[in-house]
């Protein structure tokens, strides 16, 4: 029999706060974390807004010298992981065997900012001015590597790199590893810090980014006037733990992960498959894996990027999977407040999904002003709503045709 897997700790660094609970408070209050960008030279690009992490001090979570040798995305991962471990009240080496504690943290891009900085040094000042830590600063797996070192976790150490599905795939893959008894505990999630001129230029030139210069209104998922996503940064971390292991140490439990679906579109490098065919299959796989019926899902935290095709195709996929029940459940996009954290998005949204279950509340989709006649579900417009939630599904869809769906439910022994 597969092991049951519960979530005993959460951690996050987001544009809405430098911990999970501040971020969540701002989510349910409908606060936007999107502002005028400070991490880039906005004169070089045609987009001037972003969801930046504010006031983050790496030295609060790690040695200053080591922090300088890390990419920003790895710093976020170390900070969020330490917060999640503390939240779980888990002491590795005492409450868990180090060789049975894993780390699985995804990143879609890794340390692109650090790569750009070192490449400029190489061009302008020559080879000798390039940092010997350049490669470890930007390769995507290094967030997992750094967290493993900082925590003393000696079990499975991995990184799923699936663009904007990286965080969700990492959580799902970690879930499988515990189910199959390959670990007792896994620190799982996703991280990203790629607000750079090159990133914005690339996304902008493919017409993926919003050109709305008003920070608070630019991210508007499911609204008729949506015109693209807003790039953001941050990290979300869950402590996944085998149920008996968690019960033995009397851990608090946020919820249980019961379903995971992962599919490929085999269609296009950036555009989703028509009508969200790949997302539809990912949701169906997750529901089958969870051994529940579609009408048991109460809420979907949508990928909801605020791009014309994603929001339409994801809505159509939801209708195909849930049929009449699609009009009974609620769907919202917290990207309306955080922006799009790319490889970190699915993990942060998993944190929000669990806290929604804990607090019996539906996070809103803000900036929903003009309904789109083709999008006719309950998108929880503008204001959070109270609702008892037993089962929540969250979607992540990435360039390359990567689709991942996770299902969390209220924990019942």
TrEMBL record:
Q: What's the Enzyme Commission number for this chain?
A: 2.3.1.179
Q: What does this protein do?
A: Involved in the type II fatty acid elongation cycle. Catalyzes the elongation of a wide range of acyl-ACP by the addition of two carbons from malonyl-ACP to an acyl acceptor. Can efficiently catalyze the conversion of palmitoleoyl-ACP (cis-hexadec-9-enoyl-ACP) to cis-vaccenoyl-ACP (cis-octadec-11-enoyl-ACP), an essential step in the thermal regulation of fatty acid composition.
Q: Which pathway does the database say it acts in?
A: Lipid metabolism; fatty acid biosynthesis
Gene this protein is translated from: fabF
Gene Ontology BP terms: fatty acid biosynthetic process
- NCBIfam families noted in UniProt: fabF, PRK07314.1
GO molecular function terms here? 3-oxoacyl-[acyl-carrier-protein] synthase activity
Ketosynthase family 3 (KS3) domain location is: 2-410
Q: Which domain of life is it from?
A: Bacteria
The protein's organism comes out as Oceanobacillus halophilus
> Which protein, by its recorded name, is this?
3-oxoacyl-[acyl-carrier-protein] synthase 2
Q: Does the keyword Glycoprotein apply?
A: no
On whether Lipid metabolism is a keyword of this UniProt record, the answer is yes
Give the UniProt family note.
Answer: Belongs to the thiolase-like superfamily. Beta-ketoacyl-ACP synthases family.
Where along the chain is the active site annotated?
164
Q: Keywords on this record?
A: Acyltransferase, Fatty acid biosynthesis, Fatty acid metabolism, Lipid biosynthesis, Lipid metabolism, Transferase
Q: Which Pfam families match?
A: ketoacyl-synt, Ketoacyl-synt_C
Give any Gene Ontology cellular component.
cytosol
Q: Which CDD domains match?
A: KAS_I_II
Sorted alphabetically, which PROSITE patterns does this protein's record hold? KS3_2
* Catalytic activity field: (9Z)-hexadecenoyl-[ACP] + malonyl-[ACP] + H(+) = 3-oxo-(11Z)-octadecenoyl-[ACP] + holo-[ACP] + CO2; a fatty acyl-[ACP] + malonyl-[ACP] + H(+) = a 3-oxoacyl-[ACP] + holo-[ACP] + CO2
